Queue: 2 jobs
Job 1
Amino acid sequence: MSEQLVQQLCDELTKLVLIDPHTHINPHSAASRTLADIMGYHYYTELAHSAGMPKERIEEPGLDPKTKVGRLVESLGHLDNTIQVSWLVELCRKFFGFNEEQITTSNWEALYDRAAAKMAEPDWEDQCLKQSGIERVFLTNDFDDPLEGFDTNRYIPCLRTDDLVFHLGKPEVRARLAKATGMECAGATSLRRAIGKLFEHFSSHGVRACAISLPPSFSPTAVSVNEVDPAIKRLLQGETLSADDATLVSRFVFWTLAEYCAEFRLPFDLMIGVNRRVYPEGVFQGQDLFDQRVSLIQYQALFNAFPQVKFPISVLAQISNHELVSYSWIFPNVYTNAHWWYSNIPAYIEIDTRARLQAVPQNKQIGYYSDMYKLEFAWPKFNMYRQSLARVLAQDFVIARKWSESRALALGRQVLRGNVETIFGV
Amino acid sequence: MSEQLVQQLCDELTKLVLIDPHTHINPHSAASRTLADIMGYHYYTELAHSAGMPKERIEEPGLDPKTKVGRLVESLGHLDNTIQVSWLVELCRKFFGFNEEQITTSNWEALYDRAAAKMAEPDWEDQCLKQSGIERVFLTNDFDDPLEGFDTNRYIPCLRTDDLVFHLGKPEVRARLAKATGMECAGATSLRRAIGKLFEHFSSHGVRACAISLPPSFSPTAVSVNEVDPAIKRLLQGETLSADDATLVSRFVFWTLAEYCAEFRLPFDLMIGVNRRVYPEGVFQGQDLFDQRVSLIQYQALFNAFPQVKFPISVLAQISNHELVSYSWIFPNVYTNAHWWYSNIPAYIEIDTRARLQAVPQNKQIGYYSDMYKLEFAWPKFNMYRQSLARVLAQDFVIARKWSESRALALGRQVLRGNVETIFGV
Amino acid sequence: MSEQLVQQLCDELTKLVLIDPHTHINPHSAASRTLADIMGYHYYTELAHSAGMPKERIEEPGLDPKTKVGRLVESLGHLDNTIQVSWLVELCRKFFGFNEEQITTSNWEALYDRAAAKMAEPDWEDQCLKQSGIERVFLTNDFDDPLEGFDTNRYIPCLRTDDLVFHLGKPEVRARLAKATGMECAGATSLRRAIGKLFEHFSSHGVRACAISLPPSFSPTAVSVNEVDPAIKRLLQGETLSADDATLVSRFVFWTLAEYCAEFRLPFDLMIGVNRRVYPEGVFQGQDLFDQRVSLIQYQALFNAFPQVKFPISVLAQISNHELVSYSWIFPNVYTNAHWWYSNIPAYIEIDTRARLQAVPQNKQIGYYSDMYKLEFAWPKFNMYRQSLARVLAQDFVIARKWSESRALALGRQVLRGNVETIFGV
C-alpha cells in the first residue's frame, strides 16, 4: 500500500478540530506543570516497574518532580519499543522543541527545564488545546462532584458511576452520597431517589453521558425494589453482604442508572471487562487486568429493555471486538466506542477499525477518545489513531473499493468528530 | 504488496466456474423479480434498522415492493461504508447497468425500473448464473421438503436439521415429521426410524449434505434409546420438557443424524455458535447473535465417534477460527468451511484465510459459500472472497514463499472449487 | 511496504548467532540420520494423517526409514500449502542441495540418498549447528535424566515437570522418582524433599529453566502440607484419587516447584493451554488440541506469590496473546515466550509480534524457540520467525515510526538473542 496515500489522508484528517469524548482531565488543573505530571501517567510508571524498577523507587513519598522524572528516564531504554513511549517522545517534539530520537539520561534534564518553562506560560492550557486540535473535552466526574468553577462548555461533565454500583458497601461512599444529595437513604426506594438527585444535579450542569467500567463477571438484569430492599437495608446499616446479595444490589443500582439515562436522555458509556487489583503490589493505577472470557450476551436483557438509551461500548479484551461489531450491527442502541486501554495499540486499533468500518453503520461508530489525565496526551494519542484510521481508509476504501480520497475522508471525519456530536448531542 | 499482482490473481480466479456449496436459494424462485427481493435481504433491513429506521417502517404489512425499496434507500447513507452495501452496488453495476458511486434517493427509482425490466426477462435465472460464473447451487431444504419440481442437478438438495434437533417440542414440527414420513412416532426407536425415512427420501433425490446450525452451549454426546425414551415419549405427548431432558433429546436426535450420515455417506455441515432471538424486537432474520465463549472441544466425542463422516465446519465467532484451523489440522474428518455470517467480512476473511492456507491440508478447505437467498448475490459475495484470497495468495505464497503465480492459482482453484467436488462428491 | 526493506532487515538478523531457548533435542542423538528422522516429526505424520493417510500406513511396526519416507511423500501434494512443508523444503535446500520446487514421488529418492550421505559425515551435528547459526540449545529433560554424557555447555538442561504435577498417580512415575532421588516418599513432606533433590541434581548440571505444559483448566494456588498430606498418602499407596484430590495434589506439586524455582533462582517456563489426547486415535504426538476458554487470571495468585521468579509464558491459543501482552506489561515477572505449536505459523506470529513489540518492555520478550526434536529444524523455523520479525520491524518501526534500520535491528537482536541471555542467565 502506498505510504504516501496514507500520509496524505492522515494529514487531511489532522486538520479537523475534535471533541474528545472520554478523558480523566481535572478541569481545575487540566494541563501539566512539569514532565513529572506527564511521566507520572500510569503507562510510564507501570511499564518502568514491569521492566524492573522497584515500586518503592517510583513511588517514594516526598519525591520531588525532577528527581522522579530522572528515575523514570533510567527505564526508558527498556521501553523504547512501546507505543506509549512514542507518545511521550512525540509530545515532547510537538510542544517542547525536543528533536532527538530518544529521551536518555544525558538529555532529559534540558528537556525537563524547557518543558517546565513552556508549561509555566499562563496560557499553556489554551495553547496546548489549540495546538492539539481539540476544542471540547469530556470529563469523568465523581457522582458527588460539585461541577463548579470550570467552563462546562469546554469541559463537559460525565457522571461516573462505578462507586454507586460496586462500592456502596464502603461507608465513605455512602457518606459522600448523603452529602451530595442532602438525604439519608433508608432502603431501595430512597436510594433510587438519591440517584435521581444526582442526575438532576448533573443534568443542570450540562452532563452529556453517564459512564461505568464493569468487571467481566457482571451481567445486568432488572431487580425489583421489593427483591433488593432487605439487602440494601443491611448494606446501609454497615453489614457486609454475601456475594449474591452484593450482586443483587449492584444490578439494582445499575438498572436504576439505566432508567435515569432513559429519563434524562443520556447515553450510558459501558466500559466492559476490567478486573481490578489483579496485581495489588503494582504501582498506582497499574494493578488492573482482565479475564477475556466475557460476552456481550451478558448485556442482552439491558439492550432489549432500554431501546431508547444509547450504549456506547468499549471493550478491554481485543477478542471482544468481533462481538462488539456484531452487536452494534444488530442492536440500534449499541455503539462502538474507541479503543480502550490494553486494546489501545496500533496492532489492535487497525484490526478492530477495519472490522468496524466494514460492518457497523457509519453513524454508530465513535472513532476514538484519549482517556488522558493531562491535556498534552490528546495530540500523540489521537495521532496514533489517525495513522491507523488513515491506513484502513487507504487500504480498504481507496484501494480495495476504489473510493475517492474525499469520500474516504468524509467517512474518517464522521467517526472522528461527527458521531461524537450526534451521539452525545454536543 | 503489489496491488497489480493481487488484481492479476483475482482476475484469473474469476474465470473459474463455481459450485456454491451452501445457500438458502428457493429453487422454485431462485432469482429476484424486483430490487425489493434484493434489498429485502436481512443484511439491509437489519442494518437500516440498526442505523435508526424503525422496524415498523421496514416491515409495514402490505408494503408494495417499490415503496419498500424507496424507504430502505433512505438508510443507505448511513450504511455506505459497509461491505454489505458494496455487494449491493456491485451487483447493480454488474447486472443492471448502474454506474454511479452510490444508490441515493435521487437515483434509485431509475435503477429500480431498469432492474425490474432486466429481471422480467424470461431467462433471467440462467443469465444471472452464467454471468456470475456459478453452475450448481446447494440448497437448504426443510426435512419435509418434497424435493420435486426443480432440477436437482443444478439445485442440489441439502437436508437441514435444526427443527429435528431443537424444535421437536413444537406440535407443528411433529406434524410435519408425521406427514413427511407417513408414520407416527411413539418413542425413541420410532423417531429414529422416522429420521431414517427422511434420509432415504433425500438420498433418492441426490442430497449431498446434511446441515445444522448450533448454539454455543451445544455439546453432542451419544445417548442410548433407553436413556432418552421416557423423555421422548413425554415430548411426543406434548409435555414441556425440563432443560436437561430437552438437551438429552437434542443430543439423541443429533447423534442419530450423525449415524445416518455415516450410513448414507453424507457430509454433515456443522455451523457452530449462533444464539437465536437475542434481539427479539429486531427485524425478520435480524435477531440472532452469539456468545463467543465456545470451543470445538465440545465436539470431541463426535469427531472421535464418526471417523467416516466428513464434518465441514463453519464458525460464527471470528475467534473460533484458530481452533477450527487446529482441529482440521489434527482430525482427518474436520474440514474448514468458508466464512460464516458475522465473520464474512474482508477483515476477518483475510486473517482466517491466511491461517487456514498456512496450516490446514489443502484438500480439506472449502474456501467459500455465498449463503445467499437470491441468485444475484453469488457474484458480489464470491468476488469479495476472491479478492481476499488473491491478496493472501499474493502476499504469503507468491511474495513470501516465492511461488509461481500458476502454482498459487492452482491452490486457489482447489479451495474455490476442487474441494467442493471431492468433499461433497458432486 | 517495501519487500526490499524487509529482506534487508532479515538478512542482517540472520547474521546473528543464536541460543535456542526451548527444544526437545536428545543430546545423545541431536542431528538426524535419514530423512525419516526429519519427516517423522509429528507435524508431517499428523498432517499426512489429517489429509487422509491411515495411521496404520504411517506407523506400521518395523517400517524401514526409506519406505516410511516414500509413503509420507505421497501425502505431500495435499500439504504443499502448509508452512510446515515449507520448513521441510527449505531445510532440504539449505543442507542437502535440493533445488526443486516440491518434493514429489519422482524426486524424493535421490534426495533421500543425498541427505543420508550428508548426515553420515562424522561432524554433521557441528556442521548443522554452524550452518544454522545456533550455538547453544536448551533441552527438555525428564526429571530423572542423569544429565550425563553430553556437553551441558552446548546442550543446556531444563527440568521438565509435567510428570510430577500431573502423573504421580502412575506407579512408573513414582518408581522413577524413587530411583532418581534414592528415597521413598511417604507423604507431602517427603515428596517435597524428593523434588528438592531433583533441583539439586539439575542445578549441579547447569540447569537454566524449569518447564511445564498445562491444561486450560489448571489454576495454581498454594496448598499446605497438612491439607494435601492425606491425598498424597493415598496416592502413594496406589489409590486412584477423586478429581478434586488429584487437583489438590497437582496444585501442591506445582506450587512446590515454584518455591524451588525461587530458591534455585530458576525461571519457570509455563506453556499454557494444551488438552492431551483429544484425538486418541491420532498418530504419535498428533493427538493433542486445546480449549481456547482459558485466562491468565487463573495464574494471578502465582504471579503475586513469586515476584522473584521469572515466568516466561507460552500460550497455545492465539486468542490468548492479548492477555499475555497485557499481563507482561503489568507483572514484572511475566515474560512473553515465543510462538507455540498451533500459534507457530506466520499469520499468527506476525499479529502477535506486532502487539508484543508495541506494548511489552523490550527486555521482557523472548522472540522465538524452535521446539525442535532434531537440529535440522532450527534453520527453517528461526527463518520463518525472522521473516515475520523483519516485516514487523519494517512496517511498525522503520516506516511508521521512522526509526533508522540500525535501531530497528538492535531491537530485533535483543528479542532474538539478548533477552535469552539475560532472562535465563546463559
Job 2
Amino acid sequence: MTDTTDTRTGWLSDFELEQSRERLPILYVDAIPVRVDSRGEVSHVGLLLRVMPDGSISRALVSGRVLYGELVRDALLRHIEKDLGPLALPRVPASPQPFTIAEYFPDPTVTGFHDPRQHAVSLAYVVPVDGECAPSASALDLVWATPPEAAGVSMSAEMTGGQDRLLRLALGHLGLLP
Amino acid sequence: MTDTTDTRTGWLSDFELEQSRERLPILYVDAIPVRVDSRGEVSHVGLLLRVMPDGSISRALVSGRVLYGELVRDALLRHIEKDLGPLALPRVPASPQPFTIAEYFPDPTVTGFHDPRQHAVSLAYVVPVDGECAPSASALDLVWATPPEAAGVSMSAEMTGGQDRLLRLALGHLGLLP
Amino acid sequence: MTDTTDTRTGWLSDFELEQSRERLPILYVDAIPVRVDSRGEVSHVGLLLRVMPDGSISRALVSGRVLYGELVRDALLRHIEKDLGPLALPRVPASPQPFTIAEYFPDPTVTGFHDPRQHAVSLAYVVPVDGECAPSASALDLVWATPPEAAGVSMSAEMTGGQDRLLRLALGHLGLLP
Amino acid sequence: MTDTTDTRTGWLSDFELEQSRERLPILYVDAIPVRVDSRGEVSHVGLLLRVMPDGSISRALVSGRVLYGELVRDALLRHIEKDLGPLALPRVPASPQPFTIAEYFPDPTVTGFHDPRQHAVSLAYVVPVDGECAPSASALDLVWATPPEAAGVSMSAEMTGGQDRLLRLALGHLGLLP
C-alpha cells in the first residue's frame, strides 16, 4: 500500500496525513485483478512485485487509499490504473458489496493484516481486467498466476502484511481454493 | 420459466419430467441481464416479454432449468443464449455465490414466488452483457429499462410469479433501489 | 449518525475531528437491528427515533464512527449498546462481509446518502438482537416494525439522509422486500 | 450426505429416488455448524464423524436433501436436528443467500466435489448453534475444532468428497482462513 502517487491530495500535506493516521482509521480499497475466460471463470490472478511500507520487496495486490470526496468505485479504478496502467480495462463489480474487509493494524498480532504506518480498513473486491496490463508507478513487475499457483506456499512466502491471506480469501470467494 | 427449448433433455421425456416435478424440487437459475458503463455501474436492466407458464404475457427475467450433469455456470450461459441470442456476450460472475435464491411454489402464498407447474429453487445472478441482444426462442421482445424504471410500479404490474420482486432484490444488491 | 457519546476519543478534540472531516472519508458502521423467530426468520426491524445531524427528528438505524484502533466488530457492539442499551444481546454476524456499503456525502445528490457534516463510508450489517432493548443516549424512542411496515412509504417519510433506502437494501438482502 | 432418515419421503420410493437421481440435479443444503463467542466471533467449528456414500468413515459437515414442498430454511433446520440432536438451538441465517454453492458430481474430476450416487447442487450456510449438541442418527461422533485446527491438513485428510474444501471456503467467508 502506497500513497506516493495520490497526487490529488495536495490539500492534505504529508505532515497532516501523518497526523490523521495516528487518530482515525484510514479507508482503503484492495483489488484482486483476475483474468477470466469466456465462461466467466477465473484463469489467472494478477500479482504485483513492489516495495512495501516496511521496505521489503513483496508480491502484492492492488491497494490504496480512498480520497476525500471520492467514490469507492472511482478509488478502485484509480488504483488499478495506477498499478496496471491505463489500458487494463478493469471491470469493477456492479455491486458495491465487498467480498470481505481487511483490517490492517500497526500491531501485526491484532488481525494478521499488518500496516506499520496506520490503522487502515480495506474494502476488498475481485476485479476482472480485459485489457493490456503493464506495471506502472511503484510496481516493479506483474505476474499472472493460476489459482493453484496463487494458493500455493511459495507465493505466500513472497507476500507480506497478510496480503497472502487476503488472496486466499478471494480464492475462497471464487470457489477456487484447493 | 420455460423448458420448451431444453433440447438436450431428450432422455427425460415430458411425461417423466412431469412426474419428477411432483416429487422433487427442481433446480433453476435466474439471470438479471444488465448493461454496465465503463465504470462498471449498471445503466440498464434487460427485461423480456414472454408467455408465462400460466398463459399470461409478462415481462420476465432470463430463467430456466439446470440439467442433469450441467454446471450452474453452463446453465446460465445456455439460458442467456437461448433468450438473448448468441451474440449477447454475457459476463457470468466469477464467484459461484448467487446474490439470493428464489423458492417458487405451486401455491403462491408460500413465498410469493409462484410457479404453477412445480416446486423450483432458483439461484439468482446479475449478469452484465456486452454484446448485441436479440430476443429469441420463446421471448417476444426485449426492453432495456433504467434502474429507476425497473423499480417502478408500472414495470412491476407487467411481471408475474414474483419476478418483479426478484428484480427489486437484484436492484437492492446493486445498491440501486430508490 | 452522532458522535456525541464517543467518549473514548478524548485525544481527538472536536476541533481536530472537524478538521479531519474536511480531508478524509470517515469510516462508519450501520447496524439494522432485527428480531428473529426460532427458525431464524426476521419478524421485526428496530428503528430509533432521534435527532439527526441536520437537526430534524427522524427514524434512524444504529450508526456511528469506527475509532482509531477499534475493530469493526467492536464498533458495531459499542454503537448497538449505546443506542439499544446494555441488555440488547446483539448477535453480530460471524462473517466480516457487510451486506452493502453506504457512501454518505455532504452533497445529497452524489449517492442519495447524505451527511451534512462529512464524507463517510459506512459498512452495513443486519444484527439480530435477542435481549431487552431500551433506547439510550441520543435516541428518543425505539419501535419494532414488521418487514412490510418497514418497507412502507409512511416509514420512509420519517427517515432522512437516505437511511430509508439503506433499510430497503437490508430488507432486500433478507429476501423480505415486498 | 445421507438420506436414510428422510422419513417424510415415503411417497418417493427408494427405486423412484434412484431413477430421478439419474436424470435431475438433486437440491441439497450443507451447514457448517459453529460456536460463536459473545462478540459473534467463531470459536469452534463442528465436524461429524460418519459413514459416507462411498462406505468410508469420514469427518463431515451437516448435509442433506431438500424435500418436495420444503423451504430451504426448514431443510437446514431438519438436517441440523437430525445430525446434532433436538437441543442444538441452531441460528439459521436471516438472509437466504448461501455463502457459496457446491456442485457434487459422480465424476470427482468435474469440480472436486464428489458424490458417487448423484449430481447434487448444495446451498452452503454457516449456522451458529447455541445449545447442546449430540450426534444422532447416522453420525457416529461430533468434535469441535478451532478454526486453525479445522483449516489444518490433518483434518482435511479425514474428510472426503470435497467437504474439506467446502470447510475452507466457509473459513474464508468468515475471514478465519490462516
